Batch of 2 targets.
Target 1
Amino acid sequence: MKMGNTTHCLPRIRSSYPQFSDKEKIIADYILNNPDKIIHLTINQIAEDLNVAEATVFRFCKRIGFKGFQAMKIALASESTAPIKEIHEEFNIDDDEKTVAEKVFKSNIRTLEETLQVIDGASFKKAVQAILHANRVEFYGSGGSGTVAEDAHHKFLRTGIQTIAYIDSHLQLMSASQLTENDVIVLISHSGSNKDLLQALELAKEIGVTTIGITALGKSPLSQGVDIPLYTVSEETELRFEALASRLAQLSIIDALYVNVAMGRKELMASSLQKIRNAISYKRI
């Protein structure tokens, strides 16, 4: 799914919101607050309501991955807009600890639900098959996404597939240079624009390594550059950066990939799991 599909309008807007310009945020707010109304308006009416040029509205539609205004309206019409108004809960200074905890949990649940909605079955199957047939699988990320890469390595060790995680950009380049077209790199970045990660991606493409990207829903250098993009959706609140919630979605995608691969290697995993259990048994009292 290279962002060419005509679905998931609202999740795309929320996911890309922090990167929008001031004018784009005006259009985004208008759509998010009036999804039912938008589908009955023309591009000219929206432009007049917001005092912007029609071309600005059209460019916004392209910015979030649609061919134009009509394509965006079709996507918007296909979405269930009823629950949207209940979802965005801001943190208030008067909230007690339990209320804050409830809002965090609800935001996390929403992140997972929306990410599940945008998972493209064909892309996910391609990612699973690529990993199943790879000689070696490497996971690259930095910052918060680096912890996700390390978690992925921890999980996939159980499959018996040769795997490792790198969070250092120099090591990513060095290791990628040693791979072949029979290997896979999973690149994890919420923004999809991490310069170091994109350098590793370019090197991997030159070599012919299969690349899988886990990144926020929207057009980004990473989502457009990898062979198989897998998307997450999360939103930002005043006290909670969207990247915090995105890690939960990234981890869940890794979990889903792992379980699929584990099922595909069920017989082969038995030996690997037994060796791991024997090894870690020495750590128990």
Target 2
Amino acid sequence: MSTAYPPVDQLLYTPAEAAAVLRYGRSTVYELMAAGVIKYVKQGRSRRIRRSDLEAYVNHLEPLPH
């Protein structure tokens, strides 16, 4: 018998994972990171995006007028 555990919320996302969450292309996420639109942290050669920074980016998106 296996016990199902709820998924653990990720704190850090790779650019590819962030792209999947946002439903953007990976290169778009890298462009947004390079432009400073999406903040990220760097450890060695790895770049990671905090969940809170992804949420902040989404919360600041402006809806298009009808």
